Amino acid sequence: MAETLEKKGIADEVQNQEHAPDVSYLPNPDAGLNEEECAAADKKLLRKLDIKLIPWLSFLYLISFLDRTNIGNAKVDGLQEDLGLSDSQYNATLTIFFVSYALFEPLTNILLKKLRPSIFLPIIMVWWGICMTCMGLVHNFQGLMASRWWLGVAEAGLFPGVNYYLSCWYRRSELGIRAAIFFSAAALAGSFGGLLAAGIAQMGGVGGKPGWAWIFILEGLATILVGIASYWMVHDFPDEAKFLTPDDRARVLRRLRADNQASASHEDFKMVYFWASVKDWKTWAFAIIYMGADGALYAFSLFLPTIISGLGYASTTANLLSVPPYAAAAIITVLIGWVADRTQQRGLCNIFISLFGVVGFAMLLGSAKPGVQYAGTFLGAIGIYPCIANTISWASNNVEGVYKRGVTLGFVIGWGNLNGVVSSNIYRGQDKPRYFLGHGVVLAYLVLWLLGGSVITRLLLARENKKRLAGERDVWVEGKGNEEVEALGDRRPSFLYTL
């Protein structure tokens, strides 16, 4: 995997020619090296970054996704019956998570920048680990609702935070594969979660508690331990990261500056960055695309065990049969991330892969045969999971400015996650075993927002690029100095959008 990550090294050319980025003020530790030696130094640096950043962050997201979706595994093990929940009450416990999760996401990247990743991420992990543990101790609907609300608040900072954080380390052409590997942890969590839940559920009766309670308690305690360890395992932004030597820090900042990224320099937060994101049409275009992917994702991940059990399988078997679709999704997620980096055609990747999801849910709607429906879950997973990481990379590539990008990603991801409110209420008990309503809503999300949104956004970005190349936007920089031009971020006429 390290070799794959290295291939996009020093050879990437700067797209900005008219206002080429100035890196002369940054120290150059490779000043006396030839082109081949510079390339070797760059590859060595990338390998170091990948080893230090990607594995642990991916592990954190695996824990996060496992903790938010294991309630689906707990349900098939008897949670709903033991707590005396009606179908609407169970769905409410899913819904309330997404309300708090989405409300706090736009704010978390500002906190991440101000508090530093090595402080912020461990705090929220310990917090949500406590919430998870409490979910295993509740005795009624009210207790479960309270735990799920605070779980959403605590988890809100991880996914947008890490994607923003990675965009402050890597070039645009390098981000997709890293974001895909990071997000593939969600698919692995679904796969691993089914196996783990099937095993932990065998503890039913230990300490007088049912198996579903032990799923929450043990996974919550593990999250607390991982959160504490993260204080030493999570590194800060490039200008403060302690694992970098002075030469490596200079290399990171120079390669970011050469990629036209303001991530290479320090910015103090100003409300102008917030409003720049709010007024940018791209923020809402990518929010619509992400809404299509994320709404489908949560419906799929929360109810896959229920869908499979509806085919006539017992709880343990249903949890185990949920493993292969997630494993397939993890592999395709990484593959699409690699292809999108190589081609820089993130929109086309979204359009192509979303068609698999459309076909998969059409199969779930159109056939009552267990074999066809199970095959549909594979295509559904393959068509949804890769688009999550690819859409985040696509949005990040097309927004410049440290805080503007952070706010934009917060809005995009927050709006997408708010659609979990819909996702958690469309698979109703009275609709089993075919779940026409649930499958139909997910299919609509895929067709209208993910596929349709990707097509329209790509066309608009291509049209804007043509205007910039034709000189129609040069008036934006007339009479401005270099610093004023750089302050325009992605509104610089020479900044070409990734399609």
TrEMBL record:
The chain crosses the membrane at residues 53-71, 91-112, 119-141, 147-167, 179-200, 212-234, 284-308, 320-340, 347-368, 374-395, 407-427, 439-461. Its main location: membrane. It is found in: Membrane. The keyword Metal-binding does not apply. It comes from the Eukaryota. Residues 53-499 form the Major facilitator superfamily (MFS) profile domain. Keywords: Membrane, Transmembrane, Transmembrane helix, Transport. It is a multi-pass membrane protein. One of its GO terms (cellular component) is membrane. GO terms for molecular function: transmembrane transporter activity. PROSITE patterns: MFS (PS50850). The keyword Oxidoreductase does not apply. This is Major facilitator superfamily (MFS) profile domain-containing protein. It comes from Periconia digitata.
